[in-house]
Each structure stands twice: as structure tokens, then as C-alpha cells.
Design brief:
mainly alpha; 10 helices; elongated; 205 residues; Tetracycline Repressor, domain 2
Length: 205
């Protein structure tokens, strides 16, 4: 379902494109170093434009965040689609899950926007979240049909696991490595052994 909010678009005029690109570059640098709550005034200053020019291109903070992560989220969805015919559905799901955790935690505070936007149609990030949810869900269902992943998991469970791991990664420290451990644990929790799959088949007969 398309977002009810029009997304920021790169202008056709050269001066507009220059300002748009400069703001986006400054925003990505600020979000990377300071998180999604970075000062919009500082971003505009770094881009060499007035704050009114920033708002002319990006009406809200979330619109700017959406533009900053749009390419990465589109890449994530394309990756899921490319793996839908993988010979090892569980391996494909695990690889995508790891990739999604990284994308959703690229900026501190991003996962909060993603989790909230999943359930609010009138937000710039809603469409990307729904698309990510759907593509990941198809990988999950394919692994379940192969008997390689727990049958009781839903796409909603998968998204909850993903955002939880992304939040942990956002707040992880270089020394602890706790988020990597959590991702490994969640992937292991999703898996179903051959014996369990056989037992489920017996229960279903």
C-alpha cells in the first residue's frame, strides 16, 4: 500500500538538485555521528543552505530520514526478492535477517522510526516498512514450507525480532559484541531441526 504522504523527490532544476543532494549528504553524516535526533539547523548549515531551504525539500524530520535510508531499504527488499529462489531457504532467511538488522540500525534512533511507521500509514517510512515486512515474510514462509523454520513464527514475529536486534545493535558498544550474539541466538531460535520437522509431520497426519 503506498504511503499517504508524498515522499521527498530530487528536483529537476540543477540548483534544486544541488541543494537537495547537499542536504542529504549532510544529513547522512549527521545521523551517522549523532543519530536521527541530530539538529536540522546544523544539517542545513553544513549543507550551506538556510533552514527554510531544508524544509522546502524535506517537510519533516521523518521525510529527511526516509530519504536518507530509502536506497538502503530498497536494496534490502531487492536482496530478499533475489533470494526467494535460493536452494537453501533457511540460509537465505538468516542472511537476509542479518542484512536487515544492519540496515535498520545504520543510524542510532532509526529503528524507533521504522517500528512506529510500520503501523501508521500517514508516515513517510510506512511504505518502505510494509514492503520490507512483506519481502521478509515471503522468505520466512518459504523456509517454513521446507520444514526448516518454526511453523508458529509469523511475519509479525520476524519483524519484532528484527527490530529488537536492530535496537540492540544501535546501543551496542564495540567491546561487548552483544548484538551479534543476539542475532545468532534469534536465528538459532527460528530454526527447526530435521527431527523436529519429522515430528511435526507425524503430528499433522
Amino acid at each position: 500500500m503506498p504511503s499517504a504522504v508524498p515522499l521527498a523527490q530530487r528536483p529537476k532544476r540543477a540548483d534544486g538538485r544541488r541543494n537537495y543532494d547537499g542536504i542529504l549528504q549532510a544529513a547522512r553524516a549527521a545521523f551517522e555521528s549523532q543519530g536521527t535526533e541530530a539538529s536540522l539547523e546544523d544539517i542545513a548549515r553544513s549543507a550551506g543552505v538556510a533552514i527554510g531551504t531544508l524544509y522546502g525539500h524535506f517537510a519533516t524530520r521523518e521525510a529527511l530520514i526516509e530519504a536518507a535510508v530509502r536506497e538502503g531499504l530498497e536494496s534490502l527488499c531487492a536482496s530478499a526478492a533475489a533470494q526467494e529462489n535460493s536452494a537453501e531457504p533457511d540460509v537465505a532467511l538468516a542472511a537476509w535477517f542479518r542484512q536487515a538488522v544492519i540496515h535498520c540500525s545504520i543510524y542510532r534512533g532509526l529503528v524507533g522510526f521504522l517500528a512506529s511507521s510500520s503501523y501508521h500509514e500517514g508516515t513517510p517510512l510506512h511504505h518502505s516498512c510494509v514492503k520490507m515486512h512483506d519481502t521478509g515474510g515471503r522468505l520466512l514462509e518459504r523456509a517454513q514450507r521446507a520444514g526448516l523454520v518454526r511453523a508458529d513464527l509469523t511475519p509479525e514475529h520476524l519483524f519484532t525480532m528484527l527490530t529488537s536486534a536492530a535496537w540492540a545493535r544501535e546501543n551496542d558498544t564495540p567491546r561487548s559484541g552483544g548484538s551479534e550474539w543476539l542475532v545468532d541466538l534469534l536465528i538459532e531460535a527460528m530454526s527447526q531441526s530435521a527431527d523436529e520437522a519429522q515430528l511435526d509431520g507425524v503430528r499433522g497426519t
